[in-house]
Amino acid sequence: MFKGYYTLTSSMITQNKNMDVISNNLTNTSTPGYKKQQFVSGTFKDVLYSQSANNVTGAINQGIGNVSMISAPYETVTNYEDGAWDETGGNLDFAIKGKGFFKIQGDDGVKYTRNGSFTIDDEGYLTLKGQGRVVGKNGNIYMSTDSINVDNEGNIIGGNGQILGTIDVVDFADYAQLTKAGEGVFTTGAQEVPMPSSLIWKTVETSNVNAADEMTSMINSQRVLQSAAQVLKMYDQLANKAATEIGRV
Q: Is the model's pTM score more than 0.70?
């Protein structure tokens, strides 16, 4: 009976972690370029139960089957599928058509993102708010005004026809080497793969989170959590009864 404590408690811990991931996805349904996270769990260990010669003739160590003892979290994986395109009309909004990431130079190093909802910082540089300056092909992009034009290759053109900078788009051979570093931004030590700058101006890529799917997953997770809690309460009552009533003279 007491093995059930481990099974139920591990299930509750696993579901709580799953709920955290789902809640974070729901929080970022409106974050441009956000890529949904998915919680992956499994069994900690499979135990093989066997028959014994003491109770079944000719069945020495004959396997009955595997039983999973407890559940355990494995990892949180990222879904890199594209989101939809939202035409904002903003001069500082960009979306990448196809694969690739924008490069952002932050105080703690280079980050990568699909979030192209940029602003201009106090010093006149193109910036992703809260993360750092947008890296162009020739360094950070200085543009003290948003009165610009942009071509499909990512060239930002000022009012006098001068190219102020070119947005750099890079990709990676293996997305498994990307590490989440914030809401919609990633870091990696992997080698960058240059990409042609196929940008859509005045548009941002929306989050690829489906709110309805996440709400359904949350409800299912809550039900599993509540069921485990109820059965765990029953186990506790049985253990208390065994300790206080069974065996009385």
A: yes
